[in-house]
Amino acid sequence: MNLQDTSNVKMSENVIIVDADYIDYVVFQLSVQFERMIGRAIPKADLSQWAVNIALDGGLREDGQKHETQVVLVHEVGKTQLDNFVPAVYATDLSAKAFKDERLGEFLINAYGVGEVVEKTDYFVDAIKTVCEHQEVKRLMVIPNGEQGDCYAEVRRVLRDAPDDKRITVFAMQPMEGGNFRQEILGYSLMNALGIRGEEIG
Fold first, then answer.
1. Which of 12, 37, 173, 180 is a plausible cystine mate for 68, CB 3.0–4.6 Å?
2. Residues 23 and 190: beta-carbon distance below 8 Å
């Protein structure tokens, strides 16, 4: 799917747009930190569990309806896989794949390698703008790289004009300058996907 030309494409009610390189980096940092803290090996993060966590943090609830959520993984074109998640390989394990969660319905995953023709931040922001223009999208969850470059500022700028009828949640590792969206802390969903339990760190 070319996100620049999706006027005729049907989108899901829920869309998650992710900087995949960024979440891979963050989950590695968390693994190293918590292995030392709790004194046990931490497995790779479960990507499907993480996507479910993000959908819940973004306001999706079990309500007896059949829900569909699109997960858009944006990554540098040179990267062929996630190093710290399972499943991992973009071309064979993730892109054009789907899984079903018994509570929240179907999750459709696609991965897009960018960086040769268009910068990743530009592509990321264009994807958000495109999704916001689709009336059928009710919930948008955005995970930008809020730690490097100007991606977070660009996300804030493009969401300034987002329609009020959409529930938009932006995830970051710490509270950030606000905007026309809700905020959630990214670390909780990643820790859950890594199998780190609250009582282990309490």
1. 12
2. yes
Q: How far apart are CA 44 and CA 199, in angstroms?
A: 20
Number of Cβ atoms within 10 Å of the Cβ of 155: 27
d(CA 28, CA 114): 22
Which segments of the chain have a pLDDT < 50?
1-6
**What is d(CA 169, CA 58) in angstroms, rounded to the nearest whole number?**
6
Cβ atoms within 10 A of the Cβ of 21, count?
19
Answer whether 89's CB lies under 8 Å from 80's CB. yes
| 53 Cα distance to chain centroid | 10
**pLDDT averaged over every residue in the chain:** 93
Token couple for 17: 């747009």
Q: 126 with 3: CB under 8 angstroms?
A: yes
Amino acid at 78: G
Tokens of residue 189, six digits: 């969903």
